[in-house]
Design a protein that fits this description.
This protein has 193 residues and is mainly alpha-helical. The chain has one domain (14-185). The chain has five helices and six strands, in the order αβββαβββααα. The chain has helices spanning 18-37, 55-74, 105-117, 122-151, 158-185; strands at 38-41, 44-49, 52-53, 80-83, 87-90, 95-97. The strands form two sheets. It has a three-stranded antiparallel beta sheet with strand order 1-2-3. A three-stranded antiparallel beta sheet has the order 4-5-6, with helices on one face. Strand 5 and strand 6 (95-97) form a beta hairpin. Helix 3 (105-117) packs antiparallel against helix 4. It is elongated, with a radius of gyration of 20 Å. It starts with 17 loop residues before the first helix and ends in an 8-residue tail after the last helix. The mean pLDDT is 91.
């Protein structure tokens, strides 16, 4: 290697935080890529990606999540009703609609981007990425079920729970999954995986 082609290294003070910085950069890059390329109304309706209608997977998943949430809610109460394709209604008149942005496909995309750029063996990533998707799916179902349980008696709490509490818990869960990867499963320097 010639002197003009030195490998770039982070300053020593920053180097211990390389993985965390990479996580943040990947999360933000994936988030903004999604925001800039997906065109849809947050309240529902068609979803477009670079002008191409990609609504079908979002619609199917919205319906599946609504049905699954209804089944979970009906285990503990008989005041809940499922109105196809995506509405959960309570006897008191309050309801929750599962729209395209409730499908967790965005979080699944962000997870994929984070893991594609995380250090570690591809062999392990091949099973850990789908494990992360499964965790995202389960967390999302529980998130929507809990929001619906809260909305039945207290619809005024919907915005707080949906836009703040559970949104940040969701990203916290992604961070904890990634920490598990980095601390326990990613290969270390000098170790073979």
């Amino acid at each position: 290697m010639t002197p003009n082609h030195r490998k770039y290294r982070l300053p020593a003070a920053v180097e211990p935080y390389t993985d965390v910085l990479l996580f943040v950069v990947c999360l933000l890059a994936a988030h903004f890529f999604w925001k800039l390329t997906i065109d849809a109304d947050e309240q529902g309706g068609p979803v477009f990606w670079f002008g191409l209608n990609i609504s079908l997977p979002f619609d199917l998943l919205s319906e599946h999540i609504a049905r699954t949430t209804y089944r979970l809610l009906s285990l503990t109460r008989d005041t809940v009703h499922y109105l196809p394709p995506d509405l959960i209604r309570f006897d008191n008149g309050h309801s929750v609609r599962i729209v395209w942005s409730c499908t967790a496909l965005k979080q699944s995309f962000i997870w994929l981007v984070i893991m594609l750029f995380a250090r570690g063996s591809w062999k392990r990533k091949l099973w850990f990425i789908p494990l992360g998707w499964l965790a995202i799916y389960v967390f999302n179902i529980l998130r929507i079920t809990l929001i619906a349980m809260i909305v039945e008696p207290r619809p005024d709490l919907f915005d707080l729970m949906h836009a703040y509490v559970f949104k940040y818990l969701f990203y916290g869960m992604l961070f904890l999954l990634w920490v598990w990867w980095v601390e326990r499963l990613a290969d270390r320097k000098g170790q073979k995986v």
